[in-house]
Design a protein that fits this description.
Helix 5 links the parallel strand 1 and strand 2. Helices cover about 60% and strands about 15% of the residues. By secondary structure, it is of the alpha+beta class.
């Protein structure tokens, strides 16, 4: 059952990565080419009214391009595979500050003897961060978030703390058992990790996720290139 669950999640991750690459390498590139063509047409046009419309179309195409790129990164950030969890968290922090009023501070600590984090463990921790930021933005009313990533010889931990309104954990679990953040507990369990949530109404929320280093499962073999 554990191997099957791990294989299912890896298949989902690989499919998300494939779709994200398609959006970034094909769809986004086509839209980018369209914006260049519209810019060239506007430059060569002698009719002021048509020129104005072409500029408006180019601006709209540019907005669509940014939406597609954001969708691709949200679905599966290439930086997670290329540069690792720390760089992916830096990207998530930057994008959150660009698109919300939240102030997000990221701190990282890495001991010299900390081994490289496995792909599945990095993905699980990143999904916790992503879902946490989504919930904070939508529900917490917070103004500031602190993220701390600590890599040690035997474990990697991720802490996410906000100054929002908090919530009743037991009530929320009962009311929304499928809530994405709590579903991450199951995903972390597949890499022998754990998820702890500390919160109460009016006192903000702290998410603590931890995985032992070197954890992985034979089912986590690449399914696609």
């Amino acid at each position: 059952m554990r191997a099957l669950a791990a294989l299912t999640i890896r298949a989902q991750d690989d499919e998300r990565a494939r779709v994200a690459r398609e959006l970034h390498d094909s769809t986004a590139q086509s839209i980018a080419a369209l914006t260049y063509q519209l810019a060239a047409a506007a430059r060569d046009c002698v009719d002021p009214a048509i020129t104005r419309r072409l500029h408006e179309m180019r601006e709209l195409a540019g907005e669509i391009l940014e939406e597609v790129r954001s969708m691709a990164h949200a679905m599966h950030p290439n930086v997670l595979d290329d540069l690792g969890l720390e760089s992916a968290l830096e990207w998530l922090t930057r994008k959150t500050e660009e698109h919300t009023a939240l102030e997000v501070a990221l701190a990282t600590q890495r001991s010299d003897d900390a081994p490289a984090l496995t792909r599945e463990a990095a993905a699980a921790l990143y999904r916790v961060a992503q879902e946490s930021m989504r919930n904070i933005e939508r529900h917490s009313g917070a103004t500031a978030v602190h993220i701390t990533l600590v890599e040690k010889a035997d474990s990697v931990s991720l802490d996410i703390t906000d100054d929002g309104c908090g919530f009743d954990l037991q009530e929320a679990t009962h009311r929304r058992p499928g809530m994405g953040l709590f579903a991450m507990r199951e995903r972390l369990g597949l890499v022998d990790g754990s998820l702890d949530i500390t919160t109460s109404p009016g006192h903000g929320t702290r998410i603590h996720a931890s995985v032992p280093t070197g954890t992985g499962h034979p089912a986590y073999l690449p399914l696609v290139n």
